[in-house]
Q: What sequence folds into this?
């Protein structure tokens, strides 16, 4: 499947919103490697350093620096580039920031998504649209269960609820404009990924970047909820799922619309403390400080995903264990700080993933 997928994307016109972010940069690199004609649309990189700059992506793809709420710029990009496939990743992605900037969170995540959907529909060129949301869109009842795509949507905090709104918006938009075979402009699905880790993430209030900053400063990493359990996965796992999903939407006569979970196997999840202990062991240094959480900012204690739909319908499945994901993530940062050429190293991680996926599915 890997060889077929890479050949499928060769010369395809692919637009990625949020291409300057962590996941967007990895996706842009992968599609460029596959020979796709890639256009990115996003704000300038929000961190320093940034993976977008480290990978020198501005020289590899067409990069538009603009806001998804700038409707004229967005419409002009679709009109001029004429994408066949859209991966919509642009978002305000941080839970804690959503408490401080709720209006920005909703404006970006909900209205911004509607702007991108409308630009895609009006363009007439788009055939497949993968709308990336999050596993936090579920109404989390804090029980040891795995959420499946048909479970109730919700979200305690403003980020999570905004993404639940995006899921409702996507369903309504599909039924309003895309379900009629005679009028449908494109096929659209939503992708709900678990907690993604990998090299090149420097965002605030995320576990791996916080650990890397603690190593740089020589201070302990502060943990608010060391016992919290999340569906950790290596960044290339969900991205591979997005690539498979877009190809199915583009080519198949079957119905691949709807929502899909991407995460680790149910028996392969780790607590925050376990992840940090693994990072300290792999990096060879680091320490932990347990702090009292801010009770005004609710954070879920447990979250697990049921990935059977993606496994059965898309023939996607995880390649790496959570422990392997942590190891590969830490090794990326160690090589970065050792002065290794990170374009080559990142491409090698892509090649290794492709080989490992083939080996696991042969």
A:
């Amino acid at each position: 499947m890997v060889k077929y997928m890479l050949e499928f994307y060769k010369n395809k016109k692919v637009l990625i919103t949020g291409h300057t972010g962590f996941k967007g940069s990895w996706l842009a690199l992968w599609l460029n490697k596959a020979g796709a004609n890639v256009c990115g649309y996003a704000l300038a990189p929000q961190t320093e350093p940034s993976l977008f700059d480290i990978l020198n992506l501005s020289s590899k793809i067409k990069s538009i620096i603009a806001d998804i709420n700038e409707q004229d710029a967005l419409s002009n990009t679709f009109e001029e580039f004429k994408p066949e496939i859209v991966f919509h990743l642009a978002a305000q992605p941080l839970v804690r920031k959503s408490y401080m900037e709720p209006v920005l969170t909703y404006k970006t995540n909900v209205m911004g998504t509607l702007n991108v959907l409308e630009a895609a529909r009006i363009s007439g060129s788009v055939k497949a649209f993968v709308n990336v949301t999050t596993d936090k869109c579920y109404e989390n009842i804090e029980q040891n269960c795995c959420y499946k795509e048909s479970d109730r949507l919700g979200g305690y905090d403003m980020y999570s609820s905004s993404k639940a709104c995006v899921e409702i918006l996507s369903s309504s938009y599909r039924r309003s404009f895309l379900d009629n075979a005679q009028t449908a402009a494109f096929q659209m699905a939503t992708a709900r990924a678990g907690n993604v880790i990998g090299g090149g993430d420097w965002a605030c209030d995320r576990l791996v970047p916080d650990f890397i900053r603690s190593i740089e400063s020589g201070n302990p990493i502060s943990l608010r909820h060391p016992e919290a359990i999340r569906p950790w996965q290596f960044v290339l796992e969900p991205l591979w799922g997005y690539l498979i999903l877009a190809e199915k939407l583009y080519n198949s006569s079957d119905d691949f619309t709807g929502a899909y979970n991407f995460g680790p196997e149910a028996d392969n999840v780790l607590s925050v403390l376990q992840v940090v202990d693994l990072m300290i062991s792999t990096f060879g240094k680091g320490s932990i400080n347990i702090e009292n959480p801010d009770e005004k900012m609710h954070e879920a204690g447990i979250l697990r995903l049921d990935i059977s739909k993606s496994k059965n319908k898309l023939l996607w499945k995880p390649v790496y264990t959570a422990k392997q994901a942590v190891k590969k993530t830490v090794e990326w940062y160690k090589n970065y700080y050792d002065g290794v050429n990170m374009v080559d190293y990142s491409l090698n991680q892509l090649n290794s993933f492709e080989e490992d996926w083939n080996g696991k599915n042969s």
The domain at 2-292+299-361 is CATH 3.40.50.720 (Rossmann fold). The chain has 13 helices and 15 strands. The longest strand covers residues 187-193.
